[in-house]
């Protein structure tokens, strides 16, 4: 006998969970984390000494040379942020930046040293000697905000 074209066919029920919405949510979260993660890690972690200092007012941003407690050197200038660098490369880079600035008629290059407070005095003086070899005339030391003194 021929089945009726109007009869309903029995289809087995699908009891599996639909995971497509979960995959979409996970992909959106992945994109969000990929975009925000680079923004969360900026700067070299150094423990700055705490002192009260005057702020600098200038048109040109200074070059920041960071010296970690383990003796690693990083440089930040223009679009380069916390680039690991060796001492000879540091001297060459700063000499090139100094020459570029004087060719453009800008103020002398200012360099700020961002050193860990637990560094040896000799390591910081060695870094300053390298800056002097590169022809840098203005060098500053970065500090953190002073801690409030407890009242007795």
From TrEMBL:
It is found in: Cell membrane. The keyword Kinase does not apply. One of its GO terms (cellular component) is plasma membrane. Keywords: Cell cycle, Cell division, Cell inner membrane, Cell membrane, Membrane, Protein transport, Transmembrane, Transmembrane helix, Transport. The chain crosses the membrane at residues 21-40. GO terms for biological process: cell division; protein transport. Its main location: membrane. It is a single-pass membrane protein; Single-pass type II membrane protein. It comes from the Bacteria. GO terms for molecular function: transmembrane transporter activity. Pfam families: ExbD. PANTHER family: EXBD MEMBRANE COMPONENT OF PMF-DRIVEN MACROMOLECULE IMPORT SYSTEM, TOL-PAL SYSTEM PROTEIN TOLR. Belongs to the ExbD/TolR family. This is Protein TolR. The lineage of its organism: Bacteria, Pseudomonadati, Pseudomonadota, Gammaproteobacteria, Moraxellales.
